Amino acid sequence: MRFRAVFFDAGETLVHPSPSFPELFSRVLADAGHDRDPVAVTDASAAVFAGFARAADDRELWTISPERSARFWKGVYGRMLEALSLPSGDGLRDVLYATFTDPANYALFDDVRPTLDALGDGPTLGIVSNYEAWLEDLLGLLGVRDRFPVRAISGIEGAEKPDPALFRVALDRAGVAPRDAAYVGDNPPFDVAPARDLGMTPVLIDRRRRFPGEDCIRIDDLRELPAALEGAA
Question: Maximum CA pair distance of the chain?
């Protein structure tokens, strides 16, 4: 393999809310006496993607402190509750925020460990992620923190994707040039575009096949990654 380093996004690339974001959200609502199924939650979750886009455009730096994170996510949850015709002023946003910042409510995707094993002792592995500082604890809880000796987490570094500064932190720590690194993520504007602009090789993990026309290496199972990298020009 020509790549000396392979970096990964975290949320929805390596880790996910367990059993899933819509199901967990629906459970919180049910515990509060509101019956909304996961399909309805999925429909309302457009607010999540819209929130990411606005935060990026405004350089909001929403992950770099607990206070900023809480303000950002409670705003997103408020818009989702509104879309679900539910009140947002009765403490539900606080409960949702506590639920989705509890490491116990997260799991690795099933394809993560086999992929890390397949990459073996070859390239240096790392993480470049827009995530609060507690990602360190989550990775430890899931038993994979040591598999990623290089970590550039926005909540610790103070920079967020798509800012190239966060990628440069990881490249510098790994001691590799952009051309010798691949970056794997699930969000084209936050992952594919900035990695490509820096000269890295982007890989889109598209498990739900949302971006069939994206012009990059595209996989829908992480276990396809080693072969995809071997075949990269």
Answer: 55
